[in-house]
Batch of 2 targets.
Target 1
Amino acid sequence: MSEDIEKAAEEIIQSFLQAVRDLPETKETYYSYEMYNATREDAPPNKEKLAEFRKRFLSIAPKKDEEGNIRVEVATWVER
Amino acid sequence: MGRTLEKLEKIRNGEISAEENVLEFLERIEKLNGKINAFIEINPNAIEEARKIDEKIKRGEKIGKLAGLAIAVKSNINVLGLRATCASKTLEDYVCPYDAEVIKRIKREDGIIIGMTNMDEFACGSSGESSAFGPTDNPSAPGRIPGGSSSGSAAAVAAEFCDLALGTDTGGSIRNPASHCGIVGIKPTYGLVPRHGLIDLGMSLDQIGPLATDVDGAALLLEVMAGKNEKECMMLDVKKVQYLGKLTDDIKGMKIGVSEKFRLLTDERIMEVIDGAVERLRDLGAEIVEVDLPNLEKALPAYYLIVSVEFFSATRKFDGRKYGKRIEEVCGEEVLRRIRRGSYISRKEYRGKYYQRALQVRTIIKEELMRVLSNVDVIVGPTVPKLPHRLGTKLTPMEMYSYDYLTVPANLAGICGGVVKVGEVDGIPVGLQVQGKPLGELDVFRVLKALEGSND
């Protein structure tokens, strides 16, 4: 499976390079519109809502302790 | 007046109650969902929510624009208390701790979320077959794929399991199933609809959009969802939009572009239906203009490079530590393929050879479409180049990706697009795609409505 995937990845890259080889170099488009709207007004957090969210989030956490913190183990796939 | 607005009117004047509306859908789902597999989860509070709306109506209180309508939601959008699984084992136990912004807006307008719909796993697919909860059947062409990735949402609308549905479109995932199922689907302009609360596939391409049985229904739902959200920094500066008040089916004098390129890429039986629809547009008074799209077919490989890299990045949070399971350990073949490909391309990315080059092609496609759209109001053509295959047919990845040839350019350019049924081939629905300028949704709706009217 893994080898097939690598092969398919290579194929798609090669077909892409082949398809675009005659196209000119130009600027890159990361997002369709470069209009940033970061104008949210500052406001104090709603403590009630945050507490409710925390409760709901903890209800789906795989592991938690008695004090209501998520218990996170180092994943088995992390190289040490 | 379309079907959706008629239903709204009946609920408002008490001819039918919101509760009766929801109950009727739930009975139908109970009877037929086992075969179609459009829904993954039903909202257990839907009847209770409908009753509250009926009480509001009885008390003569002000009610919202969607009062009493039952809305299905694709399983990659957060709905408080329901599961947003992305149709994957990775998130099969993920109960949403909050409402996505679009859901807040729907609830504010008294829409009732009836349940969460099936989809291609993590929206990675165009057939609706890659869900961990099993494939979805096409209610309009039984035994064939409904298209994807918003397979369950489109099938739910086509099977009359709900009034309206939400899908998401990254490379055609609303328009493709709308075409295969013979309904209306809209991919809004990038940045018009909030993405807060959407579990993303490709953050620079995804848009949430409506699926409906009629154009008015799609316009109504988009009106409710669209507009700037202060929580997001990649949105257009649009406060709100209004379509229904301005929407007519009069297309006299509109300039509509068609391209020979579509014919080269598309099954000739589909093209026959599309040609017939274009003639109808001409008869209705539109001016049909031939347009040149020389690089259209280059959009597909560029899209798959970009989306693989963005998807690889988006899935790094599914490490199984805070919620869900580690994605690589439980996901299906296509999701794994895209993760590995994204990783491979990212590793190979040096001196801007691949990803950056794909982003350059994106610029070329965008400029090409903008140039054409500066001379015409909309571009029309087929939505999907081939007919939906029979469920279970084995296709190579490249064969599967080729369903997206005609839909990905709109995502790369960030423009809007819509689909309406214009005919059939051997009983299989064929949808015509209308692509419009950025924020040109009203023009798209006008053409869809003109065609919808001429279908009768």
Note: Chain A touches chain B at residues 1-2, 5-6, 8-13, 15-17, 19-20, 23-33, 35-41, 53, 56-57, 59-62, 70, 72-73, 75, 77 (CB under 8 Å).
Target 2
Amino acid sequence: MTESLKLTVDHAGGIAVLYTEGYINNEGGEQIARAAYRLIEDDQRTLLLNLQGTKIVNSIGISILIEIIEKMIEIDGRLAFCCLTPTIEKTFHIMGLAQYAGIYPDQETAVRELNAGRPA
Amino acid sequence: MADQAILREVTLTLPLETPDVEIAASNTASAIAESMAMSVDKIDEVRMAVVEACINAKEHSRAPDRRVRLTCEVLGERAPEILRITVHDSGVGFDPGAVERPEIATKIKAPDKRGWGLEIMRGLMDDVEIHSGADGTTVVMTKARG
């Protein structure tokens, strides 16, 4: 019954993009965090989480995403999200995540906006 | 709502140790919501709220039988109008009034970033009631079809 998360990392427009597929629970959240921290170690300061393949998240998984946001703030970086289902987006707004992380409708918009906000 | 008839009722008892028990429960709730022609977005909201209610039971109930009971009731006069979901555990209970509402500005700096379950349920459902005591905790959530 366990729905494990598949995670892939790629780059688009100079930004590291993490693509998720499946349920973001505690294990899925930890998996994302490990990948995010590896990217940070590789000097990536802007991360985009593309949730197109994720239809459900839980609060434990989101709490781990908040840890990543905290880390990004510490290093003066940015974490953003794109391609959220309306319910996941609503949940992020309920929690106030949009105050600390960009939420974009699609990857193209996200990459464009994130690049516009980066120092030249 | 009190005078509306129960048109359909499904009850499911699940062992809390089942991996991703919350997904099994949410799949049932989502099938019932779908059967009453609820919109896709509302079904997703119901699903996520059930996930959170079950996770709370799993993480905090300390229920001696290690089980959670999910009841989905379709209410209406003639046609389905409201989905009422009850999530019950026979655990130690808690004082819902003593649960502090989480604030992102505080959580982002705090070592413990958890504690969002009730906030998410309240934000996604039309109404959420929590009854908790020595006999356990019962979360009653409703969502209108339209």
Note: The longest strand of chain A covers residues 46-53.
